[in-house]
Amino acid sequence: MTAVEPARRTRLYIDGAWRAPASDDLVAVVGAATEEPVGWVPAGSPTDVNAAVAAARRAFDEGPWPALTGAERGGYLRRLAAALQPRAAQIAATVAGENGSPITWAMSGQAYSPIALLDYYGTLADREGEATRPGRGTTITVRQEPVGVVGAIVPFNVPLMIAVAKLAPALAVGCTVVVKAPPEAPLSLFLLADAAVEVGLPPGVLNIVTGGAEVGEHLVRHPGVDKISFTGSTAVGARIAALCGADLRRVVLELGGKSASIVLDDADPAAIATGLLDVGMTNNGQACAAATRVLVPRARHDAVVDALVKAVGNLVVGNPLDPATDIGPLVTERQRGKVLGYVESGLSQGARLAVGGGRPAYLERGWFVEPTVFTSVTNDMRIAREEIFGPVLSVISYEGGDAEAVRIANDSPFGLAGSVWTADPHRGLAVARRVRTGNFGINRVGIDLAAPFGGFKQSGIGREFGPEALDHFVEIKTIVGVPD
């Protein structure tokens, strides 16, 4: 597969059409593998946010969208999914070119997952939004009403899928949405807008703006926005939570992680090694749910490390648009520098490199970091405490059986995901029930698009995916004294 032609987008999708932005300035989107522009988008501004919010406000307060039946809204979502289907290869190649996502994974994670989510919420849109029941001496009706205008702020690692994870349930229940695209990887959101124009989504229902932190903060602070849904770092999430708290604005936060893969003493190291890399290095490690702490019984330590090193040796690092590639580059030079800084931190604190830790010698361009495995890691080191967001695993030994492994897994400020690896799934289930994390897998990644996704502790507030996501975009109204 070859790179797509660089895209030159000069307008923003606002109020159901392509509108001229406040400024004629364009910003280059730089490819992670080429270090050259893969496209240009408008330099979005607070003025553009104002226009988008005004359009979303009109569509919610005056337009037909909230008044449509759930089945009608669901029909739009399913048609939007159908319009994305023939664009799937273009979506995958576009995101791979932007953020370095390996194309084989990008087809499923970047292209087909958002299509599946739109279909899924299209089928859930006609759920019953009102129920009448007897109260204490009267009849009551409890209604679920859309929260209003939603501001959705999207990260660079899985931009279209996460945007759809926010907008699909919001639109399904009758909200309108303003999406802020990530500056590092905005182009797939323009393909979504192309599809929205194609299916005739009503004006103002979906709006897409570009820009950096200033634009995002303006959206968060905007008095016309009723709810913010943010995915990104815990530090930025804390800032958004504070801003929303000041105005009592509703907020959902899907934040960072430092998840653990717990290897039990009955697991076969050779059999599980590839799985450990899958849950730890998916999308080049640019995944909030990546299980980057590998907890291993001390007696099995050498066997697990040997298996991991062998599995890493089989990984192909290179052009993200090549179907043979397993690990592509990181999204920006700054992110690569951050990851290499963590490598230096691990070494300075006494960890040892089993494999990787630098830049592949045969790749002269692109922001690559070799897939890396550390040993001699203790759970108090920075590489075990902080989210690295790159292809770096830390192997931590334990001696006290399953209980000790659970204790180490829970000794983290985060609680987003995790996994357990065992020959006995019932034993694995017992471990899963004791780890304080929002998503957990037994011999696999613990994420399913039909199940709620989100975290404990500093990993966030609220849930995405599954029918539970719909609940975050409604307000509950009680009506007392309902006539018979």
Characterization of the model:
By secondary structure, the chain is of the alpha/beta class. The protein is 38% helix and 21% strand. The strands form 6 sheets. The protein has a 7-stranded mixed beta sheet, with helices on both faces. A 6-stranded mixed beta sheet has the order 10-9-8-11-12-22, with helices on both faces. Helix 6 links the parallel strand 9 (176-180) and strand 10 (206-209). The protein starts with 6 loop residues before the first strand and ends with a strand. The model has no long low-confidence stretch (mean pLDDT 97).
Helix content: 25-40%
Number of strands: 23
Question: Structural class, from secondary structure content?
Answer: alpha/beta
Low-confidence stretches: none
Number of helices: 15
Backbone shape: globular
Biggest sheet overview: 7 strands, mixed
The amount of beta strand, in percent, is 15-25%
Structural key phrases:
484 residues, alpha/beta, six-stranded mixed beta sheet, 21% strand
How does the SSE layout of this entry go?
Blueprint: E1 7-8, E2 12-14, E3 17-19, E4 26-30, E5 37-42, H1 46-61, H2 70-84, H3 88-99, H4 103-124, E6 130-134, E7 139-146, E8 149-153, H5 159-173, E9 176-180, H6 187-199, E10 206-209, H7 213-221, E11 227-231, H8 234-247, E12 250-254, E13 259-263, H9 269-281, E14 291-297, H10 301-313, H11 333-348, E15 352-355, E16 372-375, H12 382-385, E17 392-398, H13 401-410, E18 414-415, E19 418-421, H14 425-432, E20 441-442, E21 456-457, E22 460-461, H15 468-471, E23 474-480
